Amino acid sequence: MNDFLSYLAEPIALRTLWTCAVVGFVDGYVSALVVLRRSSLQLGAVSCALLPGIAIGILLFGLGQWSALVGAVVAGLLVGLSSLFVARTSRLHHDAALSIIHSAAFALGYVILVSLGLQQKVDDWLFGNIMSMSYVDLCLAYGIGAVALLAVTAFKRPLLIWLFDPNTATSMGLPTRTISYAVYALIILALVSSLQAVGALLTLGLLVAPAGIMRLLTNRAELMFWGAGAIGGGCSVAAFFVSYPLGLHLGATIILLLGLAFAVAWRFRLSVR
């Protein structure tokens, strides 16, 4: 306990705590879009596609924070949006197109990183290392959170119509294709913002579980966004206080607590039927 109290007095502890709160809330808020859009499995495929972007960014510009970050953003957007384009312009279903593109991209990224002697860094990018997040990473999470809040607030009505009834949205003249691409881009940006915190693989839980929990507790779409943000931020902060004393991986602890919260919500839902 004394070691933990001493750790809390260090600047890195406060930064890590704020990172947990910000990343958890932002991803939780955006998770409502993922769950309502029913694109959880597609997001899992896209998360693996971040690795080749990191690899190519490092290959072209050297090992650096911005090279890896920009590479991940570009790769995520290219893989995610290109799969939508392929699905819309061919007989191939979106899931199939995404699976083909993301698996090939993941293999390419892994080969490049291993050939560069960065296999140890691969673990951080896949599973996260939240304590190594810088102020730039935190500012990125703030920025994406602000964009998500402003975008959803400004376009809430057409967005909800599109999420629940795409046919009605089309008949009303809403730009459904543009909305689809914009929402996909926003989700991918949230994915990239939490890459350093919980990694490309574990971030799937942070971008699905909070809204999944709220979906069990309420049918009101507006509550889902803010409630999922609170759950994501709350579980992330709780994981900070649980992981250090027990010597657990912080990113994995966040996802474990979210899984526990989901189990409790599911059991509560059964009991009130």
Keywords:
273 residues; mainly alpha; ABC transporter involved in vitamin B12 uptake, BtuC; 15 helices
What does this structure look like?
- This protein has 273 residues and is mainly alpha-helical.
- It has a single domain (2-267), classed as ABC transporter involved in vitamin B12 uptake, BtuC (Orthogonal Bundle), CATH 1.10.3470.
- The chain has 15 helices and no strands.
- The radius of gyration is 19 Å and the shape is globular.
- The mean pLDDT is 79.
Rg calculated over all Cα atoms: 19 Å
What class, by secondary structure content?
A: mainly alpha
Strand content: under 5%
Number of domains: 1
How many helix segments? 15
- Provide the succession of SSEs: HHHHHHHHHHHHHHH
CATH topology category name: ABC transporter involved in vitamin B12 uptake, BtuC
Low-confidence stretches: none
Q: Note the overall shape.
A: globular
Mean residue pLDDT: 79
CATH architectural arrangement: Orthogonal Bundle
Distance between the termini: 42 Å
CATH superfamily: ABC transporter involved in vitamin B12 uptake, BtuC
Quick rundown:
This protein is mainly α and 273 residues long.
Write the layout of secondary structure elements.
Elements: H1 2-8, H2 11-37, H3 40-48, H4 50-61, H5 65-88, H6 94-115, H7 119-127, H8 135-154, H9 156-164, H10 166-171, H11 176-193, H12 195-206, H13 209-217, H14 221-246, H15 250-271
Helix pairs in contact: 2-8, 2-11, 2-13, 2-14, 3-6, 3-12, 4-5, 4-6, 5-6, 5-11, 7-12, 8-11, 12-15, 13-14, 13-15, 14-15
